[in-house]
Structure formats: C-alpha cells, structure tokens
C-alpha cells in the first residue's frame, strides 16, 4: 500500500521546461520605490516654504482709528539713527528707566507711546520697550501712520 509521491506523468525528470531555462529573479524592482520617493520629494518641496516662521516682511500702515485721549500720554521717540527722546528731550537709554519712574503721576497706569522711525532697528525698539516695562509701565502703545486710501 504504498503511495507514490513522485512526479507522475513527467518521467521523473523534475520541473524542467521545454525551451529556455528561467532563473528566479533575485533583485528588488526599484522603479515603484523611486516613483514614490519622487512624489514625496515634490510634496516636501512644496510644503517646506509654508512652514517657515521667520519670513522677512514689510509691515503695512494701519487702518485703525485714532484714539481719543483725555490726557496727554508720555511719548518716547526713536529716530532713524537710534537716538531716544522722552517727549522732546534726548536722553541716553541708560537713563530712561529712572526718568520714567520720576515722571509717573498715576502709579504707572498712564499710557506711554513709542514713536519709532520706519528705518529704526527692531532691536533698539525692543530695548526701549524692555526699559519701559522695567520702569513699571503696563499700557504701552506703538504709534503708526494711518493708511491713506489710494
């Protein structure tokens, strides 16, 4: 009662085919992988500029209405060369905190406006704002020109 597991009908010769002998392909087909990688590259090239945070911009004039004021606010001005003026008097930045503390009338709740020239260095404006904050003022505003309709 034996059962033959051999190659029946082929004469015991195995898997030989007639004609050419084909070997198994042992390489990876990289064409689909290259296609996918190129699509991903294009997606990242399009998306990358949208992810940039520090884009240099030219800020526009504002359309905000002028504020009505009951009292005259304190004004700190910065000219194009970086000189700092408290009201109309030029002062060094080192004396700004002491002068602002000396002229405070209502316990640092007064409004204080910073008027900066267009060409003023951003770092200089930030230093002035830091000094005003260090002097105890909380209501700081930036002055700009109202946008003209063209």
From TrEMBL:
It is found in: Cell membrane. GO terms for cellular component: plasma membrane. GO terms for molecular function: transmembrane transporter activity. Its main location: membrane. It is a single-pass membrane protein; Single-pass type II membrane protein. One of its GO terms (biological process) is protein transport. This is Protein TolR. It comes from Mesorhizobium huakuii. The lineage of its organism: Bacteria, Pseudomonadati, Pseudomonadota, Alphaproteobacteria, Hyphomicrobiales.
């Amino acid at each position: 009662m034996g059962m033959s597991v051999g190659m029946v009908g082929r004469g015991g010769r195995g898997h030989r085919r007639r004609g050419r002998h084909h070997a198994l392909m042992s390489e990876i087909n990289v064409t689909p992988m290259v296609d996918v990688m190129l699509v991903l590259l294009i997606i990242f090239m399009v998306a990358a500029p949208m992810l940039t945070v520090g884009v240099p911009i030219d800020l526009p004039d504002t359309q905000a209405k002028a504020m009505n004021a009951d009292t005259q606010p304190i004004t700190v001005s910065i000219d194009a060369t970086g000189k700092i003026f408290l009201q109309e008097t030029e002062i060094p930045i080192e004396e700004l905190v002491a002068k602002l503390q000396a002229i405070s009338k209502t316990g640092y709740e007064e409004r204080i406006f910073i008027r900066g020239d267009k060409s003023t260095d951003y770092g200089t404006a930030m230093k002035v704002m830091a000094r005003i904050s260090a002097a105890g003022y909380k209501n700081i505003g930036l002055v700009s020109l109202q946008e003209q309709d063209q």
